[in-house]
Amino acid sequence: MWLSAGTTEGRELAELLADSNIKCSVCVATDYALELMNDKRLDVNCGRLTEEEMKEIVALNKNETYYHQTPELLKKYVEMVPPVDEQK
User: Fold this and answer.
1) Residues 15-27, buried b or exposed e (16+ Cβ, 10 A)?
2) How far is CA 31 from CA 6, 14, 28, 45, 62, in A?
3) d(Cα 3, Cα 10) in Å, to the nearest integer?
4) How far from 62 is each of 27, 53, 59, CA to CA, in Å?
5) Taking the chain, what is the end-to-end CA distance rounded to the nearest angstrom?
6) What angle do CA 27, 32, 38 make, to 5 degrees?
7) What is the spatial distance between Cα 32 and Cα 34, in angstroms, rounded to a whole number?
8) Helix runs in 1-88, H state only
9) Contact assessment for residue 50 and residue 31, using Cβ atoms and an 8 Å cutoff
10) Which residues contact 1 (CB under 8 A, 6 or more apart)?
11) Contact 24, 42 (CB under 8 A)
C-alpha cells in the first residue's frame, strides 16, 4: 500500500496500518514529517514526488482488493459519527 502522508491524519493512518501489520510505503515531503514518521515498521521516503514519479507508483497497482464491502460493514460506516468536536 502506498500512502502520501503529509498531515497528522496521514501519520495516524500510517501508524494504524503498521499496528494492523499492513505493509505500507509512506511518502512525506519534508524532513520534519520524516522525523514524526519515525516508525521502524514503515517504509518512509522523504522528498516531493514529481508527476512522473507518482505515475510510476500508480502503475504498480495490481487492482487487488484488500478490503471487501459487506452489508454489515456498510451499515457500520453509515452509522459512524466522527469526533468532529474533538478536532476543533
Assistant:
1) bebbeeeeebebb
2) 11, 17, 8, 10, 31
3) 8
4) 19, 17, 8
5) 30
6) 65
7) 5
8) 8-19, 31-36, 51-59, 71-79
9) no
10) 17, 22, 23, 24, 25, 66
11) yes
Q: Mind listing the pLDDT tens digit of every residue in the chain (88 residues)? A: 788 887 888 888 888 888 888 888 888 888 888 888 877 888 888 888 899 988 888 888 777 666 667 888 778 877 877 776 776 6
| Of 50, 39, 60, 52, the residue nearest 26 (C-alpha) | 39
Q: Report the distance separating Cα 79 and Cα 88, nearest Å.
A: 22
As given in the structure block, the three cell numbers for residue 2 are: 502506498
Residue 6 C-alpha cell reads as: 503529509
Look up the pTM and report it: 0.57
Measured in residues, the chain has a length of 88
